[in-house]
Structure formats: C-alpha cells, structure tokens
Amino acid sequence: MDQNSLPPIQTTARDDAVLKALVGFVRAEALQPGERLPTERILAERLKVSRNTVREALTRWEGLGLVERRQGSGTYLKAAVSPDMLHLPLTLAGGNDFTSLMQTLEIRRALEAEAAALCAERASPADIAEIERKLDIMEQAFRTLDGMSSEEDWEFHQAIYRVSGNPLFEQIIAAMHELFHRFWEHPLGVRDFGHASFPYHRTIYECIAARDPQGARGEALKLIATVEDDLKRGAAKLKLSDLR
Amino acid sequence: MDQNSLPPIQTTARDDAVLKALVGFVRAEALQPGERLPTERILAERLKVSRNTVREALTRWEGLGLVERRQGSGTYLKAAVSPDMLHLPLTLAGGNDFTSLMQTLEIRRALEAEAAALCAERASPADIAEIERKLDIMEQAFRTLDGMSSEEDWEFHQAIYRVSGNPLFEQIIAAMHELFHRFWEHPLGVRDFGHASFPYHRTIYECIAARDPQGARGEALKLIATVEDDLKRGAAKLKLSDLR
DNA sequence: TGCAGAAATTGGTTGGACCATTGGACCACT
DNA sequence: AGTGGTCCAATGGTCCAACCAATTTCTGCA
C-alpha cells in the first residue's frame, strides 16, 4: 500500500493559529523591532482565546528570540518577523574543549574569508570610512590595554560582515563566536592570546579599501590562522600541565 | 524512577529553573531520543510548581525541536539534550526571492569549499569508498531521470560534510539547503536546473580520492558557480515574463 | 517645580476545571 | 485465535479566575 495515500489528518492547532494571527498583526501594523505588542490580556480578548493560549504562543516566539517579555512593562518585538525564518539548532560533537574550539574556527575560516572578499567587492566609500573608524577604535584600545580587546575587535569584524551585504554572515559567525566563548571559560593559560592577529586587522582593511577581494580573503585567512596557532599552543600547554 | 533526580524548585525565574531541572533529569535518567518524559502533572508535583509553568518550559523545548508532545500519549524526547547547544535563529533580509537564494548560495560557496578541502585532507580509504558509492548512486539517478535528483545529490554532499570531521558543516549547510528550498516553490522556469553542476560531482570526488585539498576546493567552487548561473538565468527569465 | 509614594498596568504563577485524543483492557461474536 | 466494538483511565490542550512581582504612570504634598 502506498503510505502516502493516507497522510495524517490535521488535528487541532490553536496556538499555531494564534501565531499566524500574530504574524498577520505585526505585518498589518508594520511593527518594527523594539516596538511593543498588545498586552496578553488584550490579545486574548481580541483573538477570542484564553490568555494561557496566547502565552504559549508568545513563549514559542520568545524561545526563538523573536520577542522579549518584560514583566510590568510589556512584550517587545526583538527581530523583524517574517515567514522566511529558519531556526537552526547547533550542537557540537561535545568532545573536549579543544576540538570544539577548532571546529568553530574552521567555520569561521571559511566564512570570514568569504565575507572579507565580498566586503572588498561591495564596500561603498562610506562603508570603508565606517570600517576604518572601527579599526582605529580597535587599535586605540589595543595600545591602551596592551592587548586585544574582545569588544572593539568584534565590532570591527561585525562591520565587515554587515558591509558584505549578506546578513547570514553576521548571524552565523555570531553564533560561532558565542560557541567559541562558551568553551573559553578557562583560557588555557595563553596570556597574549590574540596578539598575533592584531596586524592583520589593518591589512584586511587596506585590501578592502583597495577593492582587492583576493587580498582581503588571504589576510582574513592569515588572521584566523594566528588564532588557531594560539589555540594549539594553549592546548599543548594544557596537555603538559595535565601530566603534572 | 529515582525520586531524587527531581528536586523541588525554589528561586524565582521558575521556568528557566524548570528547564534546568529537566536537563538534569534527562541526564540523570540517561533518557534517549524517543523515550517518554514524565507527564506534566507529575513534573508539576515533583518540582513543586504549577502545571502551567511546566507547560511553558516544555513549550520552549518543543519550539526548539527538542521534544514532541502527543495528546493523549505523552511527551517524548526528540533529540539528545546537552548543555553545548546553541539555537541560532536565521532570518534573511526578506527581499525578493532571488536575493535570498543568492545569499544562501554565498554561504554555501564558502562552506562547501572548505568542507571539500577538509574532506580531502582527512578522508580515510573507507570514507573515500563511501563517497564513491554515493556518487555512483547519484550518477545512476541522473542517467535514469535525465536530470539532477535532489535526493541523491544531497546525500552525496552530506557524505562529504560528514567526512570533514566537523559536524557544524552539515548542520549549517543543511539549514542553507532548507532555506534555499523554501524559496524554490516556483522554479523560476528553469527546466534543466542543476544540469551544469553534474560533472563537478565526479571531479570533486576525484580530488578527494587523490588527497588534493586545493583541487577539491576549486571544484566545489565551480559547482556552486554553476548553480549561481542557473539562478541568474532563471531570474532574468522571470524578469522578462514579469514585464509581460 | 520636584519628587516620593500610591495606583494602575503588565507579565509571571497558581490551582482547578473541563475537553479531545490516545491506548489499553475487556467483551461479544465469528 | 481473531476480529471488531465499547469502555475507561491517562495525557496533553484549553479555559478561567485569581493573585504575585516588576514596571510604569499618576498624584499630591513640600
């Protein structure tokens, strides 16, 4: 018998209907990220469902990072809502820390290089000026602190992703960044972590300013390579100390 | 069941605490995907919270695809739960279909090339044999159907990601694949979509078998380029037909 | 006018109730 | 033994009416 000839029938789906109605509402009102949604009580009344059902639907959205609830204040839209949303659950192999960290870097190596190249192709003069500004801030912080500043460094990179014109770069690399730092609790004992990557920030910028995609790609690869080296040095050190 | 594996909740932030308790419970009981969780009523009683609070927590897990609820039956674990999990909500710029499709391809271009290169570096003889098997199946399907078969083609690529040794490749590219096909409802009128990519599957395999990372990277780039070309052709065609 | 405290608003939690679906137990009939 | 039917307890889905906790807004006094 053809299994497909008897698909499961559609059972009740109240909260799904609520979500669909909410999508419609947000689009109809043209709500922008940051704006407040109607209160749960009002939604329940308008949609003719109980407040509990509304809450279940909103809980789903909250779990997907679409919405933020603040007790006593309201529920706020956090991201543009669109039907073209995909929810990507990422899990690492769960091996030791070193393996996980290297895996996030492998992804970053591929994406950073591509983003830098696209950025060099597409950057407008204004974009280039913005990136240079972020670079200056980062270099300033580096000299002041005598070391890499995660914050300013990350902002520089984000500027590049944004100019690449493809929002997926920023989203995916940001996830890698978060994964990386989740395993970075104990810093493997490498004091000057990131030092080696410093000069490549400027070389990447120069390639972008010169509209040199291949050059930018190469410099980005070199940058990631220094981070991988730092990581390997740290892992070797850790292994030694593990042996007492 | 061990009663001690479900200690009562005490602090505020109930539902988060409930989730944490559930993670502990699943690990303590070593629950495997497919197994059933305790009923909501039992969880509520054990954790000393109301059933609604338990439901909010479970709704979050359900939204994250971690768990499946079946009315009248129970709540079942769908995926292995681990603390090294990250959920990444992806949203495309939401522009027209063509832009979105190209953006997923830009990500794939970066990742496919890297995965192919890593695969060529790390493939064992058994891995290479497995990839060749998938390639044969795909080529067989191509000749039979006189065109690309999404199913077999995808399996070939997946084998490469798996051999790369980094599970993130498969997860992220799979997400891109799904995004791509979400916009692929109306096929832009390109009849022989994917035809051009066919020969590169074998060249990629040959580079992998020859342990030639740079070659594999290059062939993977060529493959993606053909898909991008198909897409551009389709977009041009569509634009013409839009003009009547 | 400035600001502390009261009042209203809003999400968070609770407990209880009922409905719809599921799956197993039981039974009559073949 | 097998088939189908009926019943019933278990379970998730929904609803309601409160109350709690955090936040915002208003009010009235200094």
Concise structural overview:
2 copies of one chain form a homodimer. The first copy, chain A, has helices at residues 14-29, 40-47, 51-63, 97-122, 125-145, 150-163, 167-182, 198-209, 213-242, and strands spanning 67-70, 74-77, 85-91. Chain A is mainly alpha-helical and 244 residues long.
Description:
2 copies of one chain form a homodimer. The first copy, chain A, folds into 2 domains: about 5-75, Winged helix-like DNA-binding domain superfamily/Winged helix DNA-binding domain (Arc Repressor Mutant, subunit A); about 95-240, GntR ligand-binding domain-like (Four Helix Bundle (Hemerythrin (Met), subunit A), Up-down Bundle), CATH 1.20.120. In chain A, helix 2 (about 40-45) crosses helix 3 (about 50-65). Chain A is elongated and about 60 Å long. Chain A contains 9 helices and 3 strands. The first copy, chain A, has helices at about 15-30, 40-45, 50-65, 95-120, 125-145, 150-165, 165-180, 200-210, 215-240; strands spanning about 65-70, 75, 85-90. The termini of chain A are far apart. By secondary structure, chain A is mostly helical. At the A-B interface, helix 3, strand 3, helix 4 and helix 7 of A face helix 3, strand 3, helix 4 and helix 7 of B. Chain A binds a DNA duplex (30 and 30 nucleotides) through helix 3.
